């Protein structure tokens, strides 16, 4: 702390404020500002809000050299050995409210997958004005083979029964359609209807998709083009259509045959379709797949064979392969940064630049998990933040602007927040995340961070003011 | 009368030199008495020696005769004695007499009153007949007896012949006698205490006595005050005294005017230039210099370079500089406390790290002498004498360079580092496990008689079957190859061939697997007569279909052996497999090679040396590895002969793992050792790795990566990097990478089996604590 001379002068530092968000940009002519080093985040936030002349103050966070300002400027400078005479380049971002625990929805078995339907969710946006904005629903797929739809009062409003083995993935395709996949090597489409009476709804299977020879571990949906992508253990990525008319006939060999007695009990036969295409190329099982957020004809898939493949869906060809050093368990596209976030078995998240012009495979590494990262989800509010679910029993929130350089020109980021499992509170922590593994995570603007895992619960965490 | 004569004679015999006056008288008188008694002595005594005194005797005799007191002669005798005092040279003549009579006997024989012979001795001359020449001349012949003893008698003693010696006359009679005569010359009026006679002193004697009483020098002619001879004093002999009490003169304190003048003179001369500080060398100087220059002088050591020491030079070892503890007054923390002191004293002298204890002395002068100085000098001398110094060639090798260059473990990634998943569900020990060929599932079997299939990533149990309620599942092993999905599980004496159904496999795989398993029955049925006709003995094992309930669950074929198999290893093609039953009674059936497609069983060894422990196939060549307890034999199956025998040196082999290239073999042993055999190198192990604290149960090479892992009863797994180079020019490098801890040791058992994922660097381990752990 600078010595105060006659009580009215303190050490001052020149800062240059900038942001990457266009909506809160300062006027062009704002030059460097001289501020006291005693200022903390809140004072700086007030200052920037005053400069922006916002009606309602926006809480802001400040990044100096890729680190969030958590102390006063003076302490920050002291810790990092920065002279107070330099002009600090301060990046301000909209503050992320710490996600606090809201609720847990208990299941009978492990929860393998979660998805959220709300006004701001992808499915609702695709549906446009057809969606009644008042309801929020959480979809969960369990290892007991059931799909459940929950309302926000922790009640099951609908249950989908049809998978003959564990459900591995479930997604809202639209406010009225649900896609699920599982260990039984099939994808299933469901019609979801919110009944008039509150607290009841129905999930009715509409279509069975056959084609994979092994468990379908993950799916990605794109409603406008009616396309479903599936990542399967049989080393293929399947492209499917939700429309019965489009889909080819299901391959006979993979259908449950008559000699399977247990399948005969299914009285009602559903329409069965095959894949539009099966993308071959991965050497090992495909763990996750996602659409390019900007261009639905491009997809990315991650595999245990350490590679990320870029697929052109129209021609069903592999465009590009990026090979990393570890098996990849999850993938997520960050369109604004043109990066693919991949969760690895080696306990970190690798950000991969899929563009052909990229020189390095790994643009950045986010470190902090202690077990495999199996699920990734974008922050709906920001294009720089994402949440990851890991087998170590935590979800971590990351900001890719918070970065530091390590030895070997490696860019490393640290997590902003860590969401622990509520069921693990008060228990001794195990490295392997035994019993509290997180299998799936979703982030919705209205609902918050939703995660399901080995503790048979869906846990909702939400930043209070958002 | 005779007595008197004897007395007289005796008196005569006392030497008295002078008194020459009355010679004749004495001689006559003497002769009378003497002739009567002893003529010899009388004759001897004849001479002129005692003439002077005889004159006196004559007078005394006359007087005595007239007087009644018989001591007149004695009195004369006393006078004689007094006279003796003054003259010292009176006995010379008597001596001569003695010499003359030396040869004769000094006695005569007479007859006494009884008629007996009587020896009468001659008078003894004390000066010549006695040895004691230094003894003072005795004036008394009565012996050393006080006169008071004879106060009551008229005599005062006896002479040598027993005659009485009469008391000298004294008292009134004598006084009157004396009064009647003139005072004799030298009369003193004193009585000699020794003789009782009146003491007479001569004039000279008196003079001496007088001088003595006056404290004067008694001798005559002695000058007590001679004139001083001036040896050191006097004219010309004065000594100059160097010290003086005179005060220092003033001039000693005053600058010398004279010196000042002289200095000023020089200064003036310098100023005027008459004296020059530098004098230009004159012609003479130059000549001298030139002359010196002609004698060229060289400094031969000017350019001397430091030379290396002689080859035999042994420099003294450099001692470390003294530390604080060497100080006589060290800081207190260097002083030993009592425990340290005691420990030091209890230590053997050779074991002590230093040969002294730091001690504190307040000052250097209080430091006592070094008590061990002599001892050390002695020992040093002893060393020099007894221990010749030998030059030891020192190797200048950096010890680091001797270590093999091991790569940094960070460069050898990937390898498993942490436990990623724990699969819990088995009750009791998990004895065995295996990754399926696709790497999606892990099968495990345990003491609870169940076989379970796990998803290694999530730890989810995907499938399970209970094969037995009493027998443990000893081995599970997936059939290699992705064309089928067949799990062989040995439970008890039965080998079960299982096609796990449901979600873990796919329909077409299931169908293919079922066909493959069923084909054996077809072959056995069609070739029933041919099958046993092979070269081997008819099989003692039975292939059969299990019960319908088991068939429903996917167990399609069972193979029953005579004793429980503990090892099942597949040939790489998946048609042949071998079982090893170590506990079988018939040694020849311990090892069996089975053909799955034909349902055939062969026992290739009629006789096996040692107890079979494990067996496996070579991945590419028709070689068959058989491990007995201590040996490993490699058989060529085509040529049907022993190819090689390995001697790992282990006491009890627990397992082995063949490198996927087939050139290296890892052998795990119960005696904590892991042995790496390079099959190209010979029978002995290439490397022995002894890192475990307890028996090693299992070892596994990674199918594709240069890794291997072992599991031990101490509950740990150890991951090694083991790179094998194909060209056999380079030896394999083995780098220990990681110890994986996590399994609990239950009943002395830790990790029972380890296995690798077929492609990834994921290890999986079966623990005695009932858990299957996946390590990534």
TrEMBL record, chain A:
Residue ranges of WD repeats: 131-154, 160-200, 209-250, 279-321, 366-402
All copies of domain NLE, residue ranges: 13-77
Listed Gene3D superfamilies: YVTN repeat-like/Quinoprotein amine dehydrogenase
GO CC entries: nucleoplasm; PeBoW complex; preribosome, large subunit precursor
Entry annotated with the keyword Repeat: yes
Subcellular location: Nucleus, Nucleolus; Nucleus, Nucleoplasm
PANTHER family: RIBOSOME BIOGENESIS PROTEIN WDR12, WD40 REPEAT PROTEIN 12, 37
HAMAP family the record matches: WDR12 (MF_03029)
Protein name, per record: Ribosome biogenesis protein YTM1
Source organism of the structure: Oleoguttula mirabilis
Gene of this entry: YTM1
UniProtKB/TrEMBL annotation, chain B:
Record GO biological process: maturation of 5.8S rRNA from tricistronic rRNA transcript (SSU-rRNA, 5.8S rRNA, LSU-rRNA); maturation of LSU-rRNA from tricistronic rRNA transcript (SSU-rRNA, 5.8S rRNA, LSU-rRNA)
Composition-biased stretches (Polar residues): 80-94
Keyword Magnesium: no
Basic and acidic residues: bias regions: 10-19
SMART domains named in the record: BOP1NT, WD40
Keyword Repeat belongs to the record: yes
Biased composition (Pro residues): 317-334
Ranges where the BOP1 N-terminal domain occurs: 150-416
Record localization: Nucleus, Nucleolus; Nucleus, Nucleoplasm
Biased composition (Acidic residues): 35-77
Alphabetical list of PROSITE patterns matching this protein: WD_REPEATS_2, WD_REPEATS_REGION
Main location: nucleus
GO cellular component terms, A-Z: nucleoplasm; PeBoW complex; preribosome, large subunit precursor
Annotated segments matching region Disordered: 1-114, 316-354
WD repeats: 423-455, 689-720, 751-776
Domain of life, per lineage: Eukaryota
Entry-linked Gene3D superfamilies: YVTN repeat-like/Quinoprotein amine dehydrogenase (2.130.10.10)
Record-level Gene Ontology MF annotations: ribonucleoprotein complex binding
Protein keywords: Nucleus, Repeat, Ribosome biogenesis, rRNA processing, WD repeat
UniProt-listed PANTHER family: RIBOSOME BIOGENESIS PROTEIN BOP1, RIBOSOME BIOGENESIS PROTEIN BOP1 BLOCK OF PROLIFERATION 1 PROTEIN
Subunit and partners: Component of the NOP7 complex, composed of ERB1, NOP7 and YTM1. Within the NOP7 complex ERB1 appears to interact directly with NOP7 and YTM1. The NOP7 complex also associates with the 66S pre-ribosome.
Family indicated by similarity: Belongs to the WD repeat BOP1/ERB1 family.
Function statement: Component of the NOP7 complex, which is required for maturation of the 25S and 5.8S ribosomal RNAs and formation of the 60S ribosome.
Name used for this protein in its record: Ribosome biogenesis protein ERB1
Record organism: Oleoguttula mirabilis
């Amino acid at each position: 702390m600078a010595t105060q001379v006659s009580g009215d002068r303190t050490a001052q530092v020149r800062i240059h404020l900038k942001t990457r968000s266009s909506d809160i940009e300062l006027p062009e002519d704002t030059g460097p500002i001289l501020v006291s080093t005693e200022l903390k985040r809140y004072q700086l936030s007030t200052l920037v809000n005053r400069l922006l002349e916002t009606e309602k103050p926006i809480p802001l966070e400040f990044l100096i050299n890729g680190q969030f300002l958590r102390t006063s400027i003076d302490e920050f400078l002291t810790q990092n050995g920065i002279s107070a005479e330099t002009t600090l380049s301060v990046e301000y971002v909209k503050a992320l409210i710490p996600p606090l625990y809201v609720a847990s929805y208990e299941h009978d078995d492990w929860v393998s997958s979660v998805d959220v339907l709300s006004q701001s969710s992808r499915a609702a946006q695709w549906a446009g004005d057809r969606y009644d904005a008042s309801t929020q629903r959480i979809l969960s797929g369990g290892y007991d083979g059931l799909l459940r739809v929950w309302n926000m009062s922790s009640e099951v409003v609908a249950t989908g029964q049809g998978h003959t083995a564990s459900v591995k993935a479930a997604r809202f395709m639209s406010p009225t359609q649900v896609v699920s996949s599982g260990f039984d090597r099939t994808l299933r489409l469901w019609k979801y209807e919110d009944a008039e009476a509150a607290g009841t709804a129905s999930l009715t299977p509409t279509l069975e998709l056959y084609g994979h020879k092994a468990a379908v571990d993950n799916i990605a949906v794109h409603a406008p083009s009616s396309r479903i992508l599936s990542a399967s253990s049989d080393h293929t990525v399947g492209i499917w259509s939700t429309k019965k008319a489009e889909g080819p006939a299901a391959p006979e060999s993979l259908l449950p045959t008559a000699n399977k007695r247990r399948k005969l009990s299914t009285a009602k036969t559903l329409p069965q379709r095959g894949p539009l295409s099966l993308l071959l190329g991965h050497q090992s099982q495909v763990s996750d797949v996602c659409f390019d957020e900007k261009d639905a004809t491009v997809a990315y898939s991650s595999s245990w064979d350490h590679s990320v493949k870029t697929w052109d869906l129209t021609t069903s060809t592999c465009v590009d392969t990026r090979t990393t050093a570890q098996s990849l368990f999850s993938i997520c596209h960050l369109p604004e940064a043109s990066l693919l976030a991949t969760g690895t078995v080696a306990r970190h998240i690798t950000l991969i630049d899929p563009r052909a012009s990229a020189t390095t495979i790994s643009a950045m590494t986010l470190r902090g998990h202690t077990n495999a990262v199996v699920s990734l989800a974008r922050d709906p509010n920001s294009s720089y933040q994402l949440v990851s679910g890991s087998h170590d029993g935590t979800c971590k929130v990351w900001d890719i602007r918070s970065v530091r350089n390590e030895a070997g020109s490696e860019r490393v980021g640290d997590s902003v927040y860590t969401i622990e499992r509520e069921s693990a509170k008060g228990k001794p922590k195990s490295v392997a995340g035994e019993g509290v593994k997180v299998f799936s995570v979703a982030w919705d603007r209205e609902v918050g961070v939703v995660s399901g895992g080995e503790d048979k619960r869906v846990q909702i965490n939400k930043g209070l003011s958002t | 009368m005779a007595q008197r004569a004897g007395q007289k004679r005796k008196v005569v015999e006392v030497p008295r030199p002078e008194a020459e006056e009355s010679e004749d008288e004495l001689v006559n008188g003497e002769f009378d008495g003497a002739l009567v008694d002893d003529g010899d002595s009388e004759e001897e005594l004849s001479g002129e020696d005692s003439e002077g005194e005889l004159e006196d005797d004559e007078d005394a005799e006359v007087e005595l005769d007239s007087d009644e007191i018989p001591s007149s002669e004695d009195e004369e005798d006393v006078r004689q004695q007094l006279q003796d005092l003054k003259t010292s040279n009176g006995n010379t003549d008597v001596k001569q007499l003695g010499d003359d009579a030396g040869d004769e006997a000094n006695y005569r024989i007479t007859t006494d009153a009884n008629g007996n012979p009587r020896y009468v001795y001659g008078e003894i001359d004390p000066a010549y007949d006695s040895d004691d020449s230094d003894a003072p001349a005795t004036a008394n012949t009565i012996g050393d007896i006080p006169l008071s003893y004879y106060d009551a008698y008229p005599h005062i003693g006896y002479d040598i012949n027993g005659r009485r010696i009469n008391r000298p006359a004294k008292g009134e009679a004598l006084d009157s006698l004396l009064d009647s005569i003139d005072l004799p010359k030298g009369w003193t009026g004193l009585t000699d205490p020794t003789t009782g006679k009146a003491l007479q002193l001569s004039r000279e004697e008196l003079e001496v006595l007088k001088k003595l009483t006056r404290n004067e020098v008694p001798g005559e002619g002695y000058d007590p005050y001679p004139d001083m001879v001036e040896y050191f004093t006097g004219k010309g002999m004065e000594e100059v005294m160097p010290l003086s009490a005179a005060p220092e003169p003033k001039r000693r304190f005053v600058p010398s005017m004279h010196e000042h003048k002289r200095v000023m003179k020089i200064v003036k001369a310098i100023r005027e230039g008459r004296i020059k500080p530098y004098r230009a060398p004159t012609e003479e100087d130059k000549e001298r210099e030139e002359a010196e220059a002609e004698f060229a002088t060289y400094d031969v050591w000017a350019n001397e370079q430091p030379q290396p020491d002689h080859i035999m030079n042994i420099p003294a070892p450099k001692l470390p500089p003294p530390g604080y503890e060497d100080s006589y007054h060290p800081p207190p923390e260097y002083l030993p406390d009592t425990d340290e002191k005691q420990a030091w004293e209890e230590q053997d002298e050779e074991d002590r790290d230093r040969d002294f204890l730091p001690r504190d002395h307040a000052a250097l002068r209080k430091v006592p002498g070094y008590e061990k100085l002599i001892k050390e000098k002695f020992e040093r001398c002893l060393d020099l004498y007894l221990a010749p110094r030998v030059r030891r060639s020192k190797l200048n090798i950096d010890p680091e360079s001797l270590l093999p260059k091991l790569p940094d473990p960070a460069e050898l990634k990937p390898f498993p580092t942490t436990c990623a998943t724990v699969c819990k569900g088995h009750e009791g020990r998990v004895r065995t496990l295996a990754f399926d060929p696709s790497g999606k599932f892990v099968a495990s079997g345990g003491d609870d008689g169940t076989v379970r299939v796990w998803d290694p990533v999530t730890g989810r149990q995907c499938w399970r079957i209970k094969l037995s309620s009493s027998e443990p599942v000893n081995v599970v092993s997936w059939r290699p190859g992705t064309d089928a999905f067949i799990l062989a599980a040995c439970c008890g004496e039965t080998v079960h061939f299982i096609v796990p159904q449901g979600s873990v496999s796919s329909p077409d795989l299931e169908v293919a697997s079922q066909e493959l398993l069923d084909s054996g029955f077809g072959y056995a049925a069609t070739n029933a007569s041919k099958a046993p006709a092979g070269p081997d003995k008819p099989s003692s094992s039975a292939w059969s279909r299990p019960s319908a309930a088991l068939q429903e669950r996917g167990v399609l074929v069972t193979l029953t052996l005579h004793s429980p198999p503990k090892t099942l290893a597949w040939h790489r093609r998946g048609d042949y497999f071998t079982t090893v039953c170590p506990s079988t009674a018939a040694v020849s059936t311990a090892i069996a090679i089975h053909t799955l497609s034909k349902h055939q069983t062969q026992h290739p060894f009629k006789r096996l040396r040692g107890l079979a422990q494990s067996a496996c196939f070579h991945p590419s060549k028709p070689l068959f590895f058989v491990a007995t307890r201590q040996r490993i034999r490699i058989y060529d199956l085509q040529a049907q002969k022993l190819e090689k025998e390995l001697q790992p040196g282990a006491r009890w082999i627990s397992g082995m793992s063949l490198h996927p290239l087939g050139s290296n073999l890892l052998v795990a042993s119960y005696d904590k050792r892991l042995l790496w055999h390079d099959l190209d190198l010979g029978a002995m192990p290439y490397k022995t790795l002894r890192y475990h604290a307890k028996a090693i149960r299992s070892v596994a090479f990674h199918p594709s990566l240069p890794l291997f892992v072992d599991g031990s009863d101490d509950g740990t797994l150890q991951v090694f990097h083991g790179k094998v180079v194909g060209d056999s020019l380079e030896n394999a490098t083995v780098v220990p990478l990681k110890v994986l801890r996590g399994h609990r040791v239950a009943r002395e058992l830790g990790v029972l089996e380890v296995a690798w994922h077929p492609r990834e660097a994921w290890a999986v381990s079966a623990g005695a604590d009932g858990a299957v752990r996946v390590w990534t």
